[in-house]
Task: inverse folding
């Protein structure tokens, strides 16, 4: 009996017709394993994962595999995006046992959830042998299996420990992090490391803030070169915008085609900030196209944003996106087809599979003659039309609270510079969906789908990202309710997630008990829960003037500081927030009757130091602490710039405000 038919997770629903008697993650599954005295298989993946699909087709859809799993095990299917706490615990175990991790993740555990053998993808014949071997070991070598599990739990408990050394995250450590990134930087291709190469969005945000604080050109050059290389590469959708999860090579040519909301939200922030600091037209275009991709391609009818677009189309990776020169000519005609092949680096040899190529941008299109730009736009539009007739990748349409929070913050930052009513409306719409649907009885839930909220409780990452988003919406709208909601989430985090020494656990004190309580301080594909909650605490403290939230942020950041200078690639968001604290952060209030068009407001957004909070509105506007007791000077719009609760003189001239904000 497969029990996944009523799941809210698209990933679980993909397995609802398998011959495996799948259980969702629940107490009843472990109780059944105890009753039958059999081990548990915990299979973890996500809907857009290519190799998850491969293992599903090879093994989980196979009757022989299903029979072995059903006879000898209780099998539990977990969506890692829905249950990041479960994923974190067993990924740590997998990494401890194998030295690496990834998805699909395959864990064999005792009936109490203790892992004793872990791996990732197994081809079918290997998996069949593994099932038989584990069955034999459980029957004949039970004591050794249990001892192995106890050793794994002890190891992962140490890996997730809290209460270690602390240090202030000061300028010396942040400069050391920037220096380490410079040493690890790929001078030729941009980014860090080799294949597979992931977009280093959080490191880019840190480097841009580091440059703004220090004036160091090297930090800006690394960020700018990496952003340009990615935007010109196959990892970026040259026709419709949006970034793929990673490049399978070291030079951004061939992507792993899944598109994740969190990557695009964080990259939108990076390109927006690069444009703000440099005026780079490529950065401006890519930011606008990425925002449009998120809204148009990931928007759900209920107001949130879907999690991802699949890596595969009809079981074939890249089917929607790859082209040959002949296909370009067929779509565009001879002249435009040859022009497009040159523009997008499509060759007879191909850069992908079977002589096809992934589109890259081989020529400049952002600073060209109007007639060239017009031709490029016409060609892009036509190729999009043709591509839309092809089979399209599936969409994982569940709404994840933290990823939607990241998107809101990114859209608000973009709106602040562009004044675009479309991105502004989208940010508010997503925020309302989170507030109305994901907060249940005063507690945050992690996922929803088709308007129905799921059972999994919000983890620390959710509280941090959503609270930061609500702080951003407060700045965008001037409405006090967003600040109030942010405070409620942060109070819950401080009450329910706090750990000794200023750290935080990733799960609440009243959450489901796992074999260990996760507390990972490092930033990976998304900000760690600790970095996310610190970012929200810093913004909230600046917006309200309540110092206890800043003190909590500083204490939490001090638990990450010892690893920032040594492992900068895995602490990018922590370092980003560290730059905000080091700069103040500035609290900028503009008292004006026209907040959407006031030149002082525009100057504040254009020149704000790292991590600044900015509000604009009428004198004493209700629900906006930064506007309290602040008035127009001589009847003119007036800016009040403060740093760490110490204020400059009020100014009414744009030049005076810019001078205050750009003084180092």
Result:
């Amino acid at each position: 009996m497969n029990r996944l038919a009523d799941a809210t997770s698209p990933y679980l629903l993909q397995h609802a017709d398998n011959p495996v008697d799948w259980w969702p993650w629940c107490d009843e599954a472990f109780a059944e394993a105890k009753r039958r005295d059999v081990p548990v298989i915990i299979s973890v993946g996500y809907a857009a994962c290519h190799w998850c699909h491969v293992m599903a087709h090879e093994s989980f859809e196979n009757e022989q595999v299903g029979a072995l799993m059903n006879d000898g095990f209780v099998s539990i299917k977990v969506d890692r995006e829905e249950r990041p706490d479960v994923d974190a615990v067993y990924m740590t175990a997998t990494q401890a046992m194998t030295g690496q991790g990834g998805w699909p993740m395959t864990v064999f555990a005792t009936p109490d959830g203790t892992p004793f053998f872990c791996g990732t993808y197994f081809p079918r014949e290997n998996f069949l042998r593994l099932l038989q071997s584990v069955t034999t070991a459980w029957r004949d070598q039970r004591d050794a299996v249990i001892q192995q599990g106890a050793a794994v739990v002890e190891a992962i408990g140490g890996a997730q420990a809290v209460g270690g050394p602390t240090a202030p995250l000061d300028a010396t450590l942040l400069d050391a992090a920037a220096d380490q990134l410079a040493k690890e930087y790929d001078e030729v291709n941009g980014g860090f490391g080799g294949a597979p190469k992931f977009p280093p969005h959080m490191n880019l945000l840190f480097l841009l803030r580091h440059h703004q604080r220090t004036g160091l050109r090297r930090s800006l050059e690394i960020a700018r070169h990496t952003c340009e290389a990615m935007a010109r590469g196959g990892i970026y959708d040259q026709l419709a915008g949006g970034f793929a999860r990673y490049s399978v090579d070291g030079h951004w040519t061939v992507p792993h085609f899944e598109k994740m909301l969190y990557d695009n939200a964080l990259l939108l922030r990076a390109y927006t900030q690069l444009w703000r600091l440099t005026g780079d037209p490529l950065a401006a275009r890519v930011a606008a196209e990425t925002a449009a991709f998120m809204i148009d391609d990931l928007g759900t009818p209920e107001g949130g944003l879907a999690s991802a677009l699949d890596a595969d189309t009809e079981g074939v990776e890249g089917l929607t996106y790859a082209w040959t020169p002949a296909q370009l000519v067929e779509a565009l005609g001879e002249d435009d087809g040859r022009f497009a092949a040159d523009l997008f680096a499509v060759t007879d040899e191909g850069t992908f599979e079977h002589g096809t190529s992934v589109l890259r941008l081989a020529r400049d299109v952002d600073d060209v003659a109007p007639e060239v730009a017009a031709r490029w736009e016409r060609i892009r539009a036509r190729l999009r039309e043709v591509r839309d007739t092809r089979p399209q990748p599936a969409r994982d349409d569940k709404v994840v609270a933290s990823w939607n929070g990241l998107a809101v913050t990114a859209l608000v930052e973009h709106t602040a510079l562009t004044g675009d009513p479309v991105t502004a409306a989208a940010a508010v719409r997503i925020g309302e969906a989170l507030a109305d649907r994901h907060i249940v009885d005063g507690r945050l839930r992690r996922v929803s789908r088709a308007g129905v909220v799921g059972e999994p409780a919000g983890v620390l990452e959710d509280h941090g990202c959503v609270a930061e988003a609500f702080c951003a919406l407060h700045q965008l709208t001037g409405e006090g309710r967003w600040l109030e909601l942010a405070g409620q989430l942060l109070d819950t985090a401080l009450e329910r997630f706090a750990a000794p020494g200023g750290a935080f656990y990733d799960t609440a004190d009243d959450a489901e008990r796992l074999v260990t309580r996760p507390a990972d301080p490092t930033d990976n594909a998304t900000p760690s829960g600790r970095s996310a909650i610190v970012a929200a605490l810093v913004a909230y403290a600046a917006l309200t003037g309540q110092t206890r939230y800043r003190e909590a942020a500083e204490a939490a950041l001090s638990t990450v500081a010892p690893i920032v200078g040594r492992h900068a690639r895995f602490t990018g968001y922590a370092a980003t927030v560290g730059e905000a604290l080091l700069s103040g952060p500035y609290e900028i209030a503009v008292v004006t009757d026209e907040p959407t068009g006031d030149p002082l407001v525009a100057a504040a957004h254009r020149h704000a130091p790292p991590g600044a909070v900015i509000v604009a509105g009428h004198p004493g506007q209700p629900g906006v602490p930064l506007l309290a007791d602040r008035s127009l000077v001589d009847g003119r719009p007036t800016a009040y710039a403060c740093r760490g609760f110490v204020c400059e003189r009020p100014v009414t001239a744009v030049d005076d405000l810019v001078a205050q904000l750009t003084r180092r």
Notes: The first strand starts at residue 22 and ends at 24. The two ends are 66 Å apart (CA to CA).
